[in-house]
Automatic annotation (TrEMBL):
Organism: uncultured Nocardioidaceae bacterium
Key words, A-Z: Glycosidase, Hydrolase
The keyword Mitochondrion belongs to this UniProt entry's keyword annotation: no
Broad EC category: hydrolase
GO MF: alpha-galactosidase activity
The protein's Enzyme Commission number: 3.2.1.22
GO biological process annotation, one example: carbohydrate catabolic process
Superkingdom assignment: Bacteria
UniProt protein name: GH36
Length: 457
């Protein structure tokens, strides 16, 4: 096993359990039995885009990025091992040897214990880490309509305007109207607007005239390998960031002066348009392995890039991280996606299940400590078979209330649930311990079902 031994804990092999945090928003996070084996990617691209690039997954035992908890079972105090600062996020591993769980780590960790169980240990660590890095308590989040799960990359300004008018007609309490991916060819092609989309400035003016805030999707830390930027500035690129939009992706070197100047320019132009809510996606691109202009680790470079974003847009722009390395983001975003996408194109009927339920429930301890938890958008139209279960999860374990439907396609049930979700408003406060425990149980159950499905296949 890799790493150095940091602890050996006597455990009950039948009731002991382990919490393993993942690298970024889309990584698995859940509770395992002490003899469990970590969920692993099925392909190289999944490792790059959903796990920690450059860090292999151990074939046995439980592996965590930055935070691991051992709850021995039998009433003994739970022990938490977590990163002590923002400079590094160590990888941790467990190995069951007889009735002892050996914990290894490739860096330095802060070790604490709690007599109130594993969930209390996570909450205590979250409070400690937030204080350690000087992160202020999150403010009240807005309520959001998002274009993604209805229109995907085919969104146009006409689609958004139709829903803006429908939101008014139904008097839905929406604070932010957010345009997701599809409005632009991407940062690698400048800040141009896709021709079929229509006028972004005119749309922003319409949204603001309705008394709401305008929101926009942006993937600032990576580009496609065939984009103009990638061809003209190969020295601005770091390394492989997976594949999307029909091409290979590459991470940007956010330590390079040229990249930093471009990012600041683009972000200031967006804010000058009147946009005050940004969904920052695919943020892991700044941390992928590779040589950089400055001699920084991927973690350090990512933190530097996200700090630049916060400085460029100012304190009044609401930032939502997504696909983001978690611990290095603390203190720089207002809300954080704590799950993968609810579904991808083709899964609109709910046939792919609730992909995000496990990490949403498991990461309940981060709510109100690091940020406001974004469980991803509620989808409430009748054609989505999982809408009831997802609505319950979004209300129970989410802090940022959002939905992503064409309002005209909502039935009576959908409109009522959306109205209830938005009417309660966002929640910036930490969840009570009992909810963390319920979430841990739900996450463990979802993990067991995934393991059974994997073994059956």
């Amino acid at each position: 096993m890799p790493g150095k031994v940091v602890d050996e804990v006597r455990v009950d092999p039948t009731t002991g359990r382990v919490y393993a945090e993942g690298w970024q928003s889309w990584s698995p996070a859940t509770w395992y039995p002490v003899d469990g084996t970590s969920l692993a990617p099925g392909s190289d691209w999944q490792h790059t885009m959903r796990y920690r690039p450059g860090t292999p997954i151990a074939p046995t035992g439980v592996q965590a990025e930055g935070v691991l908890v051992v709850d021995p079972g039998g009433g003994e105090p739970a022990r938490c091992y977590g990163a002590g600062d923002l400079g590094s996020v160590p990888t941790l591993w467990t190995e069951l040897v007889g009735d002892h769980l050996v914990v290894r780590c490739n860096g330095e960790v802060q070790s604490t214990s709690s007599a109130d169980g594993g969930e209390a240990a996570l909450a205590a660590y979250g409070d400690w880490f937030a204080r350690r890095v000087g992160s202020a308590a999150p403010g009240a989040p807005p309520t959001v309509w998002c274009s993604w799960y209805r229109y995907f990359e085919e969104v146009t300004s006409a689609h958004v305007l139709e829903n803006l008018r429908a939101i008014d007609a139904h008097d839905l309490p929406v604070d932010v109207v957010q345009v997701d991916d599809g409005w632009s060819p991407g940062l690698g092609e400048g800040l141009g607007v896709a021709e079929r989309f229509g006028s972004l400035p005119a749309l922003v003016d319409e949204i603001r005239s309705s008394g709401r805030r305008a929101g926009l999707w942006l993937a600032p830390f990576l580009v496609g390998s065939r984009t103009t930027l990638a061809r003209e500035h190969p020295d601005w690129l770091v390394g492989d960031a997976g594949r999307n939009w029909g091409q290979q992706l590459v991470g940007l070197d956010v330590t390079h002066p040229g990249v930093r100047e471009l990012l600041a320019h683009v972000l200031r132009r967006i804010v000058d348009l009147g946009i005050s809510y940004l969904k920052l996606d695919f943020l892991y691109g700044a941390a992928v392995p590779g040589a950089r202009h400055e001699d920084l680790t991927g973690t350090e470079a990512y933190r530097s890039g996200l700090s630049l974003v916060r400085e460029a847009v100012g304190p009044d722009v609401y930032l939502v991280g997504c696909g983001a390395p978690l611990l290095p983001s603390v203190g720089l975003v207002d809300a954080m996606r704590v799950s993968p996408d609810t579904f991808h194109a083709g899964g609109e009927d709910g046939s792919t299940g609730l992909r995000g339920l496990m990490p949403v429930a498991a990461r309940a301890w981060q709510q109100g400590r690091f940020w406001v938890n974004d469980p991803d958008c509620l989808v409430a139209r009748p054609s989505y078979s999982e809408r009831g279960r997802w609505a319950e999860a979004a209300v129970t374990y989410g802090g940022l209330p959002s939905f992503s439907d064409r309002v005209a396609e909502l039935d009576e049930w959908g409109l009522r649930v959306v109205r209830d979700l938005l009417g309660e408003g966002g929640d910036p406060s930490p969840f009570p311990l009992e909810r963390l425990r319920a979430g841990a149980g739900l996450a463990a159950s979802e993990r067991a079902q995934r393991a059974q499905a994997r073994d059956a296949s």
